[in-house]
Amino acid sequence: MKNNKIIGNEFEKEFAQYLQSKGMFVYNLPNKHTGQPFDIIATKNNKFFAFECKHCNTNFFRLDRVEDNQVQALRKLNQANTYNYYFVFKSEVFNTVKFCGADYIMDCLRYMRKNIDLSIFKSIEELEMIL
Questions:
Q1: For residue 126, which of 8, 85, 92, 122 is within the disulfide window of CB 3.0 to 4.6 Å?
Q2: What pLDDT score does 30 carry?
Q3: What is the DSSP letter of 31?
Q4: Helix and strand numbers, DSSP H then E, in the chain
Q5: 68-124: pLDDT as tens digits
Q6: What ranges in 2-101 are assigned the alpha helix state H?
Q7: In whole angstroms, how far apart are CA 33 and each of 30, 36, 79, 95?
């Protein structure tokens, strides 16, 4: 049985390949013990995107999995008027990929929510319209 780190890394690679198939230049940031605020950066048509990939064993995402450096990065990106920062979720329950803007995650943290039901998020097909 694979541990969460291996499963998460596999999802990051899978999602990076998906983005490449959509014509994006993609860089999957290396996992370091010091952490990074997102897993993947990508560009297309002079537009910058950042993605944080999360694998979930249930149909809920626990907000305690959002790291402090991710919150700090989101604040800085918002100050720079850059809003193309997304959380992307792969759920074992739905056997699909869903996403939301990082600003939604930030709002949930601000209101001290504990979990988010993944069924409310947009499908990967809807992400294609943004890219």
A1: 122
A2: 76
A3: P
A4: 4, 8
A5: 888 888 888 778 777 788 999 998 887 889 999 988 998 898 898 899 999 899 988
A6: 4-21, 68-79
A7: 10, 9, 27, 29
